[in-house]
Every structure is written in structure tokens, then in C-alpha cells.
């Protein structure tokens, strides 16, 4: 029986490595892909390492690579990136309540290595594990950053040694986003909102002819989701029946561990 | 125009700036203030909408920002496959690897 009790002497960093490990592993193929694409776009190995450390965003780095290959001017790339990264304002705000009382320097480092995937892990840990501290969260970020950077470095080196079909490599990011969408689909309302976002994304992207369309689609679709959620909740209050839209799906892989 | 390493370096620094600002400013701002409840409820829907938009852009929108699915057969089929695998396994690694393998094989077949 003693084996089932978590060992309090086990160092926290090992625990945090365990938490971040599935993410670390999945960063390897994506990081490799990104390194290969950056190399194809003309980045040398040093710059590939630097961009992985400083920007640390699969989406952003894929975007830089693809815009460099179509010879976009510097300012356009930076502007596009700004709109792509704007979403972190929303992700960051939703994590901020867990960082109450942290100093500015800590917040700065936390912001530097925040990205979609470690956000998802940390948000889940913060909301389900009362013992999860900002320090643990930062360590998870750093583990993912480490694996990401090394994978990019190796990808850059592979890119200089081999020729690889880039369309296949590019799909790594799409697959990653698809996975993250599926993880968010907890009820029928979310499925509906995902479809709405898809439709709006096509509409706004074609309309604006820029990634600004992504921001517009996200803002509108998420706001509709918020309003519908409010509406179903208030109706439940009156009828004492839970709307089928808000019923939580069964998890096919069994009950979540957390 | 062919870029040199120094221009790439400058690009990275600028990208660092625009990537950091939206991550740091709200995080620092709301750290000391209470976030309104409606805002948090709204934020719950943001990730799913953003990821869906990004996937849609990758699969259905071409380089000149027009709707197009020509030549996207392998990606479309692989995307459906990834959704299924993600749903059943809940594993990021398995989902991504299966997706890559599927696109790789399907580009040969189609």
C-alpha cells in the first residue's frame, strides 16, 4: 500500500518533468519539422536556436518560415506575427488570476515562455490541483522550451543534410491544433461553436485577406459561445433541467486522471 | 531579395517584441486586479475558436487568401483521422505522429 502514496521526498522538478513529458515528446516531431522549415527558409542554425528561445511558438515560427519563402517584407512578417500572437493576450489573462502576488520579473519570465500547449497543461493543473504553484508552472514551461529548442536545432541540422517533403512537415502543426481542439470539446455547445468559428474563419479570412481574419473569427465565435452559455444556464435556472447543449461528454479514454 | 543572417537576427528581435507584448501586458495587468467573471466565462471559448480558425486557414485557405480545397485531399482525410485518434486516445504524441504518417502516405496514393 505504501507504494500508492506519492513520495514526498521526490523532488518537485521530477514531478514537473512528468507533467510536461507528454508535451515534451510531442514537441520533438513538431520542433524537428519547424527546424527543417526554418532551414529551408534560409535561417542558419544560430538564428533557429534564437527564434526558438525568444519567440517559442510553433505557429509563429511556421509563419516566419513560410513568409520568408514567399519573400515577404520584414514589416509584413512582424505585423502578421503580431496578429497571430495577439491571442496570447486572451490566454495570458485567463492564467493571470493564478499569478496573484508574483513579482514583475517572475511574470516577465512566465510570459516569455508561455505558449499554447504549456498554457493548456498549466491551466488544467492550476484549475484541478490546489498544490500547483506558479513556480511549478514556470518549470513546466522551461522543460517544454528546452525540448522545443533542441528539436528545432536538430531539425535545422537535418534540413542541411537531407531534402524533405515540406508539405508533410507542415501538417505537424495542423495535427497539433486539431488535437487541442478535440481536447476542448467537452459539450455540444463547444462543438457548435467550433463549427461556427470554422465558418467565420473562412468568411473573415477571405474578406480581410490577412490573418486579421483569424482574430475577428475568434472574437466573434467565442463571444457567441459566451452568450449562448449564459442563455442555457439561465434557462436551466428556471426549468431545473440541464440543457443538452451543456451536458458533458463521456470521455472514451476513461475518467481523466486529474 | 535574399536575406542575410543579420537581417534574420533583426527579424527575430522584432518578432520577440511583438510576441512578448501580448503575453506580458495582460498577465501583468490582471495579476493585481480581479478579472471580471463575464470575462473569464468568455475566455473559456477563446482557445477552441482560435485553434479551429488556424486549422481552417491551413486546410481551406490558399496562399492568396481564397477558399480552395484543390490538392488538399491528403490533408482533409488526415485531419479527420487525427480528430478521431485524438478523441479516442487523448494522446498528443500519437495524434501528431499518426497525422504526419497519414499525410505522408496519402500524398503517394492520391
TrEMBL record, chain A:
Q: Which PANTHER family match?
A: INNER MEMBRANE PROTEIN YGAZ
Q: Which GO terms describe its cellular component?
A: plasma membrane
Which compartment or compartments is the protein found in? Cell membrane
**GO biological process terms, semicolon-separated:** L-valine transmembrane transport
Topology of this chain in the membrane:
Multi-pass membrane protein
One Pfam family name is AzlC
- The family this protein is said to belong to: Belongs to the AzlC family.
* Highest taxon listed in the record's lineage: Bacteria
Could you confirm whether the keyword S-adenosyl-L-methionine appears in this record? no
Question: What protein am I looking at?
Answer: Branched-chain amino acid ABC transporter permease
Which UniProt keywords are present, listed alphabetically? Cell membrane, Membrane, Transmembrane, Transmembrane helix, Transport
InterPro entries for this protein? Brnchd-chn_aa_trnsp_permease
User: Keyword Transport: yes or no?
Assistant: yes
List the transmembrane segments. 27-55, 62-84, 157-181, 188-207, 213-232
Automatic annotation (TrEMBL), chain B:
Q: Which UniProt keywords apply?
A: Membrane, Transmembrane, Transmembrane helix
In Pfam terms, one family for this protein is AzlD
Matching entries from InterPro entries are given as: Brnchd-chn_aa_trnsp_AzlD (IPR008407)
Q: Which residues are listed as membrane-spanning? A: 6-26, 76-109
Record's superkingdom? Bacteria
Q: What is this protein called?
A: AzlD domain-containing protein
Q: Name the species this protein comes from.
A: Fructilactobacillus fructivorans
Amino acid at each position: 500500500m505504501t507504494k500508492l502514496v506519492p513520495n514526498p521526498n521526490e523532488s518537485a522538478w521530477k514531478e514537473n518533468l512528468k507533467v510536461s513529458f507528454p508535451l515534451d515528446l510531442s514537441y520533438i516531431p513538431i520542433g524537428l519539422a519547424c527546424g527543417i522549415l526554418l532551414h529551408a527558409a534560409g535561417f542558419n542554425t544560430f538564428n533557429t536556436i534564437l527564434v526558438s528561445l525568444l519567440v517559442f511558438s510553433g505557429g509563429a515560427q511556421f509563419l516566419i518560415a513560410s513568409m520568408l519563402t514567399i519573400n515577404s517584407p520584414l514589416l509584413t512578417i512582424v505585423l502578421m506575427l503580431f496578429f497571430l500572437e495577439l491571442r496570447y493576450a486572451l490566454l495570458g489573462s485567463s492564467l493571470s488570476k493564478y499569478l496573484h502576488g508574483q513579482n514583475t520579473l517572475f511574470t516577465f519570465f512566465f510570459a516569455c515562455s508561455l505558449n499554447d500547449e504549456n498554457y493548456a497543461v498549466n491551466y488544467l493543473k492550476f484549475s484541478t490541483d490546489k498544490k500547483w504553484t506558479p513556480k511549478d508552472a514556470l518549470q513546466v514551461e522551461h522543460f517544454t522550451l528546452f525540448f522545443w529548442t533542441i528539436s528545432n536545432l536538430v531539425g535545422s541540422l537535418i534540413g542541411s543534410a537531407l531534402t524533405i517533403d515540406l508539405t508533410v512537415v507542415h501538417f505537424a502543426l495542423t495535427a497539433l491544433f486539431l488535437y487541442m481542439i478535440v481536447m476542448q470539446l467537452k459539450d455540444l455547445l463547444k462543438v457548435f461553436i467550433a463549427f461556427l468559428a470554422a465558418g467565420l474563419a473562412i468568411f473573415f479570412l477571405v474578406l480581410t485577406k490577412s490573418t486579421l481574419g483569424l482574430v475577428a473569427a475568434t472574437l466573434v465565435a467565442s463571444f457567441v459561445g459566451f452568450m449562448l452559455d449564459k442563455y442555457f444556464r439561465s434557462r436551466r435556472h428556471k426549468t431545473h433541467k440541464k440543457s443538452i447543449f451543456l451536458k458533458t461528454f463521456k470521455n472514451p479514454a476513461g475518467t481523466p486522471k486529474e | 531579395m535574399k536575406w542575410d543572417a543579420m537581417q534574420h537576427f533583426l527579424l527575430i528581435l522584432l518578432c520577440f517584441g511583438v510576441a512578448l507584448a501580448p503575453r506580458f501586458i495582460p498577465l501583468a495587468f490582471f495579476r493585481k486586479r480581479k478579472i471580471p467573471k463575464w470575462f473569464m466565462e468568455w475566455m473559456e471559448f477563446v482557445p477552441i475558436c482560435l485553434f479551429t480558425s488556424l486549422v481552417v486557414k491551413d486546410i481551406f485557405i490558399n496562399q492568396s487568401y481564397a477558399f480552395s480545397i484543390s490538392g488538399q485531399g491528403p490533408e482533409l482525410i488526415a485531419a479527420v483521422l487525427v480528430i478521431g485518434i485524438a478523441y479516442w486516445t487523448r494522446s498528443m504524441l500519437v495524434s501528431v505522429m499518426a497525422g504526419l504518417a497519414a499525410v505522408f502516405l496519402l500524398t503517394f496514393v492520391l
